[in-house]
Amino acid sequence: MDRVGTIFNIQRFSVQDGPGIRTLVFLKGCPLTCLWCCNPESRGVKPDVLFRKMKCLGCDRCVGNCPKGAIRSVEGGRVIDREKCDLCMECVRKCYAGALETAGEEKSVTEIVEEVLKDWQFYGNSGGGVTLSGGEPLMQPEFAADILRECKRNGIHTAIETCGYARWEDYEKLLGWLDLVLFDLKQMDSKMHRKVTGVPNERILENLEKLVRAGKQVIVRLPLIPGINAHREHIEKVGRFCQELSIAQAHLLPYHKLGVQKYEALGIAYPLEELGAVSDEELEEFRRILEGYGITVTIYNHS
Ligand code: SF4
Ligand code: SF4
């Protein structure tokens, strides 16, 4: 069976999400609502409609053609009532200015693997492959497993980037086809984790441990958010935890605001106040702390 799932992007020639040159496949749907999320359009499993105010010409073709009466004209833009909208995408088709966009589309496993195979030669030369990201790939576990299996059948190195919040039975569906796990560690304190992501972290830490025990290569990824987890004490906790599990690699991902305009396009408020940046000195300090626990650190900006 050629399974179909929902993705919101395929990005070729990535060099920050696993070894070598990689193709990233972004699956839609995420169980978390991280305050700093730079892909808010990834949260729902279904497609979404984005409205780009800057491109709007004010013609109101969208308003007049919406069969559900879900779009209205307001000063400075158009507002979509997401309760009424049934995602027919008629407004997107009618908007010649390109101010309305669809985020998310259905693709079959075959279509995705065909796209991934286009760069087969680059993977071989660079030690790269495919990385399933999101959203959270485990929100569509059978679809993710089928993509990974077909990639492995074609001799391609496979990785997932996961937030860790999924049923272990769903991870098990992927394990036979998976070479590398990029595992997000956002906050070691469970109460704080719930406050900033919407869920506690016990299941996440348990899944991390199980993946290591299952013999998977794991790299932890730490989004560094000022005032939330970008401080010495938290990095020490991460270091101790990783050392106990013999995790040897970490990626540091300093906070950026690249996703802010997407919040406006979805008609939702950006949840964080103005935050400063993590300084180079702090990044070096965090690197030294983790290296003290035997962890090799790579710093990525704007991943
Ligand atoms: S159809 Fe496009 S350009 Fe016209 S009002 Fe709607 S969003 Fe703006
Ligand atoms: S997707 Fe369809 S229902 Fe939703 S706002 Fe556009 S035209 Fe209306």
Describe the structure.
Belongs to the organic radical-activating enzymes family. Keywords: 4Fe-4S, Iron, Iron-sulfur, Metal-binding, Oxidoreductase, S-adenosyl-L-methionine. The chain is of the alpha/beta class and 303 residues long. It has two domains: 4-44 and 105-299, Alpha-Beta Barrel (TIM Barrel); 48-103, 2-Layer Sandwich (Alpha-Beta Plaits). It contains eleven helices and 13 strands. It has helices at residues 61-65, 90-94, 109-117, 120-126, 141-153, 168-175, 190-197, 202-213, 232-244, 260-266, 280-292; strands spanning 4-14, 22-27, 48-51, 71-74, 77-80, 100-103, 105-108, 129-133, 157-162, 180-184, 217-224, 249-254, 296-299. Strands 7-1-2-8-9-10-11-12-13 form a nine-stranded mixed β-sheet. Strands 3-6 form a two-stranded antiparallel sheet. Strand 1 and strand 2 form a beta hairpin. Helix 3 (109-117) packs across helix 5 (141-153), helix 5 (141-153) runs parallel beside helix 6 (168-175) and helix 9 packs parallel to helix 11. The longest helix has 13 residues, at 141-153. 41% of the residues are buried. The mean pLDDT is 94. Bound molecules: iron/sulfur cluster (2 copies). Residues 56-62, 78, 94-95, 97, 99-100 line the site of one iron/sulfur cluster.
